[in-house]
Fold each of these.
Amino acid sequence: MFFNVEGANKKSEIKQQYDVVIIGGGPAGISAAIYALQGGASTLVIEKAIEGGQMNLTDIIENYPGFKTIKGEELSSLMKEHAEQFGADFYDGKVIELKDEDSHKTVVMENGKTIKSKAIIIASGSYPRKLGVKGEEEFSSRGVSYCASCDGHFFKNKKIAVVGGGNTAVEEAVYLSNIAKEVYIIHRREKLRADKLYQDRAFSRNNIKFKWNSVIEEIKGKDKVESLVIKNLKNDEVYEEPFDGVFVFVGLVPETSFLNKDLFDFDEYGFLITDENMETKVKGIYAVGDVRKKELRQIVTAVSDGAIAASHAIREYVNEDQISSTQSINRVRS
């Protein structure tokens, strides 16, 4: 999948030192930038793709306060404009290492640049978890997809499968039902985990059908996906059925590949563990949004994480003279 980043206004040259460096330009990172700037901190946002993160993959957002409905790309653009208005620097690049060097932190970029800061906020997000079955890699972008709004149009009047039972899977199945002839939700349990709102929509669509207690064991085809090998977990029946494509929504994997695993604490799924201030066990390094261990991963909780982390970083790690001049403003605007 590709995004049009023309006019993104990312800087090719940046300063060697900032008060706060934010890794990731999704809703958590942009929120952190706004609150850091509001607190008087010089702030850099590093994003290797496009600001907004996975919001850009969401066709319609219906649960962000203030907007009855809004397209993911539009909300991403509005958030970035908001941060730019406050004076955030945006930089296009990939972080390969973080260093904790007592008096400061250092961000090491893939291109060799290094940036010093008083605090770092990790907002690197996550990426779709794969099924790990035979044929998945082979047919990626040839019938296997992880983004309905990106690839759904390729399956007009086709028969497709959606794997998963959570909010994302069911919401995307409803979206795809407007394009495809038949949509089968394949779920390993006997009921969905999605919120009732999404379940009701799925159950009301005549062209959405369900395969309960089922998993995909193999994806088959020649030049593209042609069939799925499915196993019924109740009776162990294994059968092959024709499909034109499969969309996978079975969870997220946190993007932490650039972190020294000895420095941080992670849960069993690889998400960063933080305290209530979003601070990791490394003082001055925070984790926000989809990269950290949390119960609810939504845009509204991501922006909340970013605000909390930035506010705490300002209080704890930005110079006292900056704090004293902004405390009253923060209290009024909070």
Amino acid sequence: MAPGGDRRRDMARGAVPGAGPRPARSAPVTLRSPLAALHATAAVLVAVCLLATLRSGVQERPVALAFGVLIAVGELTLPHAGCVPPTRTRPGGRAPLSGGSRTSGPGLRGTAPLGAAGSLSYALLGEQAGHPTHHGVVQVVSVVFAASLLGSVPHLARGQEGSVPDRLTRRVLAVGFAAVCFQPLYNRGVFDDWSGPAYALLLLALLVLTVLCDTVVAAALAHSRTCWPFGPLLRDELRSVPGIGSAVCATGAVMALAVAVVGLWALPVFSVPLLLTQRSLRRYAAVRATYRQTIASLARATEIAGYTPAGHARRVAALSQAVGRDLGLTEPELTVLEYAALMHDIGQLSLVDPVPAGATAGLPVAEQRRIALLGGAVVRQTGASAQVARVVERQADPYPEQPVAARIVRVVNAYEEKVRDAGPGGPLTALEELRLGTGGDYAPEVVEALGRVLLNQGCGA
């Protein structure tokens, strides 16, 4: 049998929702192994450092206390929305999957710039008010972990424990890397001849390396939890570095240099800009959450009016995002795709007689385009971006002329309509019908991506 036949046979055995009994698989264990390995590495590192610190005692206690308070305050002021991963819907919308999120959660960077900058500054601290420090790698990891955990207590109390292990893992591994690169060499006098701009550039270089390592860890954690492709996740993490990541690096380096000259008074002075930045991020997150809730509420208008089945828009949006990630779309493109998928049926409100079950894929092409254009006009009136409106307007065009997001919405919407009322073989039959339509109606690469998503829909569950 051809490889394609093997894959379709495997899907029929249970890889596609509703396609029959699902045999025991080892894939989720394999996919989760990076997550377990990273958590275990961080846990071992923390345990060794804490035991060593308790045995030898804390060096320069005022310095350790000052940085610990700074890091804890940074964690305490995390925005709530940034700590709770959204629920992920299983492809096809048949059952919810927990633990999915667009990113791996705030860690070294993200929504905790003050805690990240304070942690990195302590890891790269060589002097305090002109006097050499001797805290070393072990104490750096211990203080950063204890302060980060203390600052996470309110989030744990609110039931937001889902992202705390990942955030602590990222923080411990990143700070441990920076401290290992700097503290042993500094204590041996390797940097004694480094001064002025050269020393500052050294700290910045170490911080850049640390942030790059953190992006790899963040992408690995997100891939293990969500099964989304590692490459696009890593690319999204790298794209965030020039923004808040550069501010964290610069502040961490400046804090370490300022404390070396003027002492601990530099910490509150340089904390103010990052506190303001953190407040701005919190307000921005709240605005985005409100905007998404507004879009989701508008999308339910067709369900409330009886034009589409309950949950149809949400299922199409969830599956479209999974397909978009498989195709390597960026975070901004995924946001546009999500909003367009939520509102793709809004044009049906113009119909006098609702289409049975809202199944527009079977309508004449001219009618599909009319509904799509009316939907785009409605989207423009809501204040959504022009990109979202264009995707809604173009979803009924020939696929070679469509943007990628419109191709995805069209394929996923057709799949959802075909599989809705089918029996045990419905998902497989629907996917085969879409494959037969790749000659003119549906983009072949999107249909294949949908097949991959459905095949792997159980991973990370």
